[in-house]
Amino acid sequence: MSDFFEIDFLAVEAKKSGDAIALRYVVNGVQTVHVVDCGYEGTGKKMLDHISEFYGAPKKIDHVVLSHSDGDHSRGLRTILDSINVGALWMLRPWLYAEELLPRFSRFTSADNLRARLKELYPNIAELEKIALARKIPIYEPFQGAVIGAFRVLAPTKVRYLDLIVQSDRTPEAVSEDHAASLVKAVDGLLQKAAAFLKALWGEEVFSPDETSAENEMSVVQFAVLNGKKILLTADAGRGALTEAADYAPAAGLVLPGIDRFQVPHHGARRNVSTEILDRILGPRLASPPAEGQGSFTAIVSSAKEDALHPRKAVTRAMKHRGGRVFATEGQSIRTSDNAPDRNGWNAAVEFPYSEEQEE
Among 233, 238, 241, which residue's Cα sits nearest to residue 209? Predict the structure, then answer.
């Protein structure tokens, strides 16, 4: 069997975007099936059906990776863990570090109490842990340097992850989870109503001055070279996580800039990237647009049709400024591959258009 890879970004259609990525790759004749996130609850069956139909109905998924705790990435994984043999579950569980975190939470004097509270605050992860333990699926920590099949984890480090737990709005000393959720909803509503766009020339970039959430910054960033192609999966990583990943890249054998397949972070949000970090990872802006249908890399955005906030025009523009061919799920599953078997009924995806304007 010749070496190949295929990566499928499944459409997660809800009012808010979600991530569900299936991968199959063969290296030295050995096949691996690898799942990263699985959208909302209903996405689980869709993922299983997809793997059965297009990956040869394997009896096992070798690796399941939860990038971070948000429900648009985690809820569908319950169905996966419950329904098929899984070789390994990779996810970070904050309560494992209760002893180390205890001195940083003045309200708690007992690691057991802090541990219990963290499980309450991260119910999606707690539920996946419960299923995995019941089914005797081994759980591993995807910290920087971990090897997951053909992939190497570039971020987060354990030190930074612990800092992010303390900084998170979900933690016991911050605002309540309900209050935090209501604030996010209110801000999103204002952004949607007040969205304004300005004409922009080729190469102009304006990103949000605000940072993404601590939960998004906890995202597991994975890198692999398959069939000579450099692949970077970013989940909802923010500028901090992407910087940490870029700093570690040389140790993982990744020379930057230069990526062949790039997952655009957080459904194309403006708070996750900057000109500086994109220059570092993808390369500098081109002086002029590449010829139609040409590009030096493929950028894929997981975004739902009904999600009016994603992807941001500024972000899709930035991908094209660096020579990217941009594709967004928007109701369709997208496959990117090299030397992979033909797939009946699948047509080439249409590139996301370049916008002559961006958010104010």
Answer: 238
Is the pTM above the cut of 0.85? yes
Q: Which residues of 296-308 are buried (b: 16+ CB within 10 A; e: fewer)?
A: bbbbbbbbbeebe
CATH of 4-359, one of 3.30.70.240, 3.30.450.20, 3.60.15.10, 3.40.50.720: 3.60.15.10
The reported pLDDT for the residue numbered 186 is 47
Q: What is the pLDDT of residues 74-128, one digit of tens each?
A: 999 999 999 999 999 999 999 999 999 999 999 999 999 999 999 999 999 999 9
**Closest C-alpha among 52, 67, 22, 61 to residue 221:** 67
Q: Please, are residues 257 and 282 in contact by the beta-carbon 8 Å criterion?
A: yes
Examine the pLDDT at 194 and tell me if it is beyond 60: no
Q: How far apart are CA 294 and CA 281, in angstroms?
A: 19
Backbone angles phi, psi at 349, to 5 degrees: -70, 155
Q: Is 285 helix (H, G, I), strand (E, B) or coil?
A: coil
Distance CA 192, CA 197 (A): 12
